[in-house]
Amino acid sequence: MVEVVIVGSIGLDNIETPFGKIRGTLGGSAVYSAIASSFFSKSGIVGVVGRDFPQRHLDLMQRKEIDLNGIEKKEGKTFTWTGKYDFDLNTAQTLETNLNVLEDFEPKIPEEYRKAEYVFLGNIDPELQLSVLEQMEKPKLVLSDTMNYWIESKRTKVLEVVKKVDIALMNDAEARELFKTTNLVKAAKEILKLDSDYAIIKKGEHGAVMFTEESHFSVPGYPLEDIKDPTGAGDSFAGALIGFLAKEKEINESNIRKAMVYGSIVASLEVEGMGVTNFDFVNQFKIKERFKEFKKIMQF
Ligand code: AMP
Question: How far apart, in whole angstroms, are the C-alpha atoms of residue 147 and residue 137?
């Protein structure tokens, strides 16, 4: 039974970093998140692909035991994203976005997904995020993400999503842009004012911070010497976070803090390879080993 429903983009990425270049690789926010979530809970992915989407990409997701019934195959071309990173790996430069089949996608949540209690509205058109939410029966926890592309084109809808979810997640640049402030604490307070119980702001290789009305918590990024490609780090963080919470079943601040640590662990393992490739080498043993490292680096 699917425990976590993940919606977002499923695409073909062309990525260039100072350490390598790949074309037509499996990408998309939902893909990274679903793989990351699947290390902890049974996860189902909702998205759309075109007729050109290679079977080997579906096979990779199947190997991770992701439920693929929520993937619709449509006439036309798959969503593509072309991005480049220079030596500051925190900032992706988008060179091209082709929405293709994503342009007029109307998500239909499979019957067997509707009862799932954990929903991640990954980075995709905020109107699609809202449509997914309407089709879910009674989720216990809804987490959302977004990106500058949607903040710039559909700001009001992005704010509506933030208002409807339990945990609003975004990265530092997006939070500043959405709330028109340079200060992250102020941006987090704006998120909380919109009825979100928790605001989590991702800070790229520097980890993430969480704010509630009464408290805040920081998780570091793992100090990696060998980052190959940061694409999908934020999505992997989010996927692991919701997957872990679905496994624990109880939503409280202590579990959310632990979930953020697992988010940071899985993201750090993902960025050690180009695209999603490194996920083929990530397993429970590696997650446990890095958890021990995190315990050490977070102690004082
Ligand atoms: P991240 O590095 O976590 O920001 O996510 C990278 C993934 O987001 C890539 O695999 C892209 O395919 C996907 N992506 C890029 N632009 C968009 C967009 N406008 N909407 C949805 N997904 C996108």
Answer: 26
For residue 254, the enclosing domain spans 4-298
Quick one: tokens of 204? 């790229």
How many structural domains compose the chain? 1
String of DSSP letters for 59-92 = HHHHHTT-B-TTEEEESSPPEEEEEE--S-TT-P
Per-residue pLDDT reduced to its tens digit, 36-57: 999 999 999 999 999 999 999 9
Residues in CB range of 9: below 8 A, 6 or more apart: 27, 28, 29, 30, 47, 79, 81, 102, 122, 123, 124
Q: Atom 6 of ligand 1 has which residue's CA nearest to it? A: 232
Tell me the pLDDT tens digit for each residue of 158-202.
999 999 999 999 999 999 999 999 999 999 999 999 999 999 999
**In this structure, what token pair is assigned to residue 240?**
């692991």
Q: Please give all residues whose beta carbon lies within 6 A of any atom in ligand 1, as ranges.
A: 9, 11, 13, 27-29, 81, 97, 123-124, 147, 149, 231-235
Name the residue at shortest CA distance from atom 5 of ligand 1.
232
Instruction: Report the nearest atom of ligand 1 relative to the CA of 236.
Output: 3
Question: Looking at residue 136, which CATH number applies to its domain?
Answer: 3.40.1190.20
pTM of this structure: 0.96
Distance CA 293, CA 298 (A): 9
Give 123 Cα–ligand 1 centroid separation in angstroms: 7
Whose structure tokens read 């239909």?
Answer: 108
